Amino acid sequence: MNRLSFPTIAVAAGALLLTAQAYAQQGPGPVPAPMSSFALVPGVPTAPTYAAAELDRLLQPIALYPDPLLAQVLAASTYPSDISFAARWSDEHRGLTGSRLSAAMTADEERMEPAVQALMPFPSVLDMMARDIAWTHELGNAVLVDRGAVMDAVQRLRFEASQYGYLHSDASVMVTSGPYIEILPADAAFIPVPYYDPFIVFGPPRPGVIVSSAISFGHGVRIGNAFAPWGWGSTSLLWPRHVVVINRTPWGRTWDNRLTYVHPYAVRRDAERRAESHDQSQRRSTHVHASHR
Fold it and tell me: Are the C-beta atoms of 240 and 40 separated by less than 8 Å?
């Protein structure tokens, strides 16, 4: 068994001391552990693990998003520190759409990851992620640790919703059948944002529930060429290979390279932006919430 060197132990001890000092200054209440420091200590495991049932609960709120939107949400969730700011910015610019919104995003040059900026046209999605930032943080952790397991959980949930009769094609989306269930916009330029209650659509129909209308794809956002720099129009999910494609390029951010990974977006990145360390957050294995309630 490898032994930690004295400098390694000193780093870990220093991180614990910082945590204790933060606790003393802030008083009772949860204090985030500086896991980014531990992530740099060789031999100390930091990546969380998720059982299949836990992933299912975690993915329920977004499993029925159309594939392009789901791909963007999965990528954005790995940068949770940008989500709250992006939600506020999006809300403040709610009246802007299309090329006007894209122009405002470019002009403001906000120091946010392109993965998060891609969701600016979807204020309801950003708001959902910002209101439960602990869930967003945990989703991002799961994506970084095992993207394949996350995508498998989505497929399990889609199969359940389809099996019970809730998930089907309509005027807004095309739903394919096995071995992998894809949800694709009927109009590639119009991305519908579904409304559904996870407590209903992932279980047997209950008395009084109208199965055919339990999932609504009636509202959405028209995405034109103005948003191509953020990957729209060339975003997809390759289910058999567990690959997320953004801007025609496989998205490869993982737990191991999260401090240095650079997205393959066409938009300019702020070179001085601090790398997102994506520290672990408190686990909440029973988390479930309705989508866009």
Answer: no
- Do residues 34 and 23 make contact, with C-beta atoms less than 8 angstroms apart? no
- How many degrees, rounded to 5, is the angle at CA 203 between CA 78 and CA 237? 35
Tell me how far apart the alpha carbons of residues 5 and 8 are, in angstroms, rounded to a whole number.
5
Q: Which has the closest alpha carbon to 36: 21, 26, 46?
A: 46
For the chain, the structural domain boundaries read 6-39, 52-250
Which residue matches tokens 């977004």? 62
Residues of the chain with pLDDT under 70: 1-45, 109-110, 268-293
Alpha helices (H) along the chain:
6-26, 35-39, 52-59, 67-76, 80-92, 98-108, 114-117, 123-131, 133-145, 147-163, 198-201
Predicted confidence at residue 3, as pLDDT, reads: 41
How far apart CA 83 and CA 288 sit, in angstroms, is: 19
| Confidence (pLDDT) at 291 | 54
147 neighbors 237 (Cβ within 8 angstroms): no
Query: Amino acid identity of 110?
Result: E
User: In whole angstroms, what is the distance from residue 206 CA to residue 75 CA?
Assistant: 34
End-to-end Cα, the chain, rounded Å: 51
